[in-house]
Design goal:
The protein has 531 residues and is α+β, with helices and mostly antiparallel strands. Among the domains are: 76 residues, no CATH class; 85 residues; 128 residues, no CATH class; 68 residues, Homeodomain-like (Arc Repressor Mutant, subunit A, Orthogonal Bundle). Helix content is 52%, strand content 6%. The strands form three sheets. Strands 3-2-5-6 form a four-stranded mixed sheet. Strands 1-4 form a two-stranded antiparallel ribbon. A two-stranded antiparallel sheet has the order 7-8. α1 packs parallel to α16. The chain is extended, with a radius of gyration of 36 Å. The N and C termini lie far apart (88 Å).
Length: 531
């Protein structure tokens, strides 16, 4: 039996290792202007060697020099006239108010003031809106907790993302729930969940808490029908006795006819949603009316009423926050030529601290302090080099973009030329991934608007006279052909491809179908409108 023994083996292999400096360069290149500013501010807080150049604020070196001049005797002053500005004790001023070690007086530390964040407005989310309504209701404590549990499982559209069984099982798994459980706990929890879902579905906006589209629309129709009956009353079979010599009889009859028509449209809409939703999605009104056993006019009225409903009631409160965009570069025409300029407004201009430089050369500085300052200097220099490299890469990339897309800048999107990232990378002599990071999440201010740099990169297809047509222009042409088609006889993908080929653009039916699906345009059968 062989015994296990330790052995030493040598192995030669090659592998790519990213140094910390290279990793920082890659991350800095991918940042846009706002993100770069946040990163620089964070680095200036962590690294005392970095200083921001600001002519309006005196630096520490200038302050120390001013202190030395103020300490000189009055007879050594260069100017014989007395300046009131020189009488200010800058040493005490900067020592008390600009020294990093300065602390406020104890009486100011003891006073509690509300946070400034309390004064900032925050958008109300769907969960907040529902929880506020739930808190205003007088319901049982367990039912309120279950309703909060249901609200927490709603998606951004307001739909319930979990089944009743999953919610009941999750509620039983909550710590403390087993202590109150008995032999019939699963059934009791399931009934509680059902009551909670029913409670949430009665909150505003109508339709939240639904499990699918059918239930969401049905809840909205039922709520509007209930409100309509409350306003105009429930229709009765017995005829109402007419008043003698009613001067408004004609207006009353017309109003009652409109009320009956509205009520009938609600009934047809409820029938369509409950039983014939697939036919509605096919937009086949004739077969839909036949299946629902209603007239074509009633089917159209029911469909028009369904269009007034909101299939995503939660989006009213779960709207995406507006993203702030600031151009990273400007494409400007000067003297008949397009030039690229970086937008460096509000970006801190960095420099290395003279104070810490003197600490490195001073013999009185402790060895450990010198090592720390050296490490901070290396980190600061690496950051400044990476920022300069980022600027150079973005400028060279944008210069190629401007040189290739001059027609687009002059005439608009119809003159956009196809351009690949690989082609630009080969022209400026870098890897394609470098160009990809240089244009990621960055915007350019152009005469055609503020556009993302990735907008200029797209594939092309064979177009007129052997030239290439970019993907964006091709999709616009496909959409324009579909918008101009006859709704009763929509164009097929084969017909769209043939029409583009007649314009000199060589596309297959499968490619046209892919472009149509990318633009979320329905198929020919779904676009057809039937009377």
């Amino acid at each position: 039996m062989a015994l296990l023994q330790p052995k030493l083996n040598l192995k030669v292999s090659q592998r790519q290792v990213l140094t910390p400096g290279l990793m920082q360069m890659v991350s800095v290149l991918a940042l846009n202007k706002l993100e770069l500013k946040e990163m620089i501010d964070a680095e200036m807080v962590e690294n005392p060697v970095l200083e921001e150049i600001d002519e309006s604020v005196p630096m520490l070196d200038d302050v120390s020099g001013l202190e030395k001049r103020l300490e000189q005797p009055a007879e050594e002053a260069a100017t014989p006239t007395k300046d009131i500005f020189n009488e200010i004790d800058f040493g005490t001023y900067f020592q008390e108010y600009l020294d990093p070690g300065y602390r406020t007086q104890p009486e100011y530390e003891d006073s509690e003031k509300p946070s400034f964040e309390n004064f900032l407005s925050q958008p109300t989310t769907l969960s907040d809106h529902l929880a506020w309504q739930l808190g205003a209701l007088s319901v049982d404590g367990k039912l309120s907790e279950a309703a909060e549990f249901v609200i927490g499982n709603l998606d951004e559209d307001g739909y319930l993302a979990a089944s009743e069984e999953e919610l009941a099982a999750a509620m039983n798994a909550v710590p403390g729930a087993q202590a109150e459980a008995n032999g019939h706990a699963p059934l009791a929890a399931l009934e509680l969940v059902r009551r909670a879902i029913d409670l949430v579905q009665r909150l505003d906006p109508t339709g939240v808490g639904a499990r699918d589209l059918r239930e969401c629309l049905a809840l909205q129709i039922a709520a509007q029908k209930q409100e309509f009956d409350h306003l105009y009353g429930i229709p009765t079979e017995e005829p109402v006795e007419e008043a003698v010599e009613d001067p408004h009889r004609g207006f009353r009859i017309e109003a009652e006819a409109q009320i009956d028509e509205r009520r009938r449209s609600m009934e047809v809409a409820a029938l369509i949603v409950d039983r014939h939703l697939p036919q509605l999605q096919k937009r086949d009104v004739k077969n839909l009316a036949r299946a629902a056993q209603v007239t074509a006019e009633e089917a159209h009225a029911g469909i028009d009423f369904i269009r007034t409903l909101d299939p995503r009631p939660g989006r009213m409160y779960n709207r995406e926050q507006t993203r702030l965009i600031e151009p990273d570069v400007f494409f400007v025409k000067r003297g008949g030529e397009w030039v690229v300029s970086m937008n460096e407004e509000d970006l801190p201009s960095l420099r290395l601290s003279q104070r810490y430089r003197r600490m490195l050369v001073s013999s009185e500085t402790d060895k450990e302090v010198k090592e720390y300052v050296k490490e901070r200097f290396r980190s600061a220099l690496q950051l400044m080099r990476n920022i300069a490299q980022r600027k150079s890469t973005i400028l060279r990339t944008c210069e190629v973009i401007v040189r290739r897309q001059q027609d687009f800048l002059d005439r608009g999107v119809e003159a956009l030329r196809p351009m690949m990232i690989k082609e630009v990378a080969e022209e400026i002599g870098v890897h394609p991934s470098t160009v990809s990071r240089a244009v990621a999440n960055k915007y350019a201010h152009t005469p055609q608007g503020v556009l993302e740099l990735r907008f200029f990169f797209s594939e092309g297809a064979n177009g007129p006279e052997g030239a290439d047509t970019p993907l964006l222009v091709l999709k616009r042409k496909v959409r324009k052909l579909i918008e101009d088609e006859n709704p009763s006889k929509p164009l097929t993908d084969d017909q769209l491809a043939a029409m583009l080929q007649s314009q000199g653009i060589q596309l297959t039916r499968r490619t046209v179908a892919k472009y149509r699906e990318d633009m979320n345009i329905p198929s020919t059968h779904q676009r057809r409108k039937r009377d």
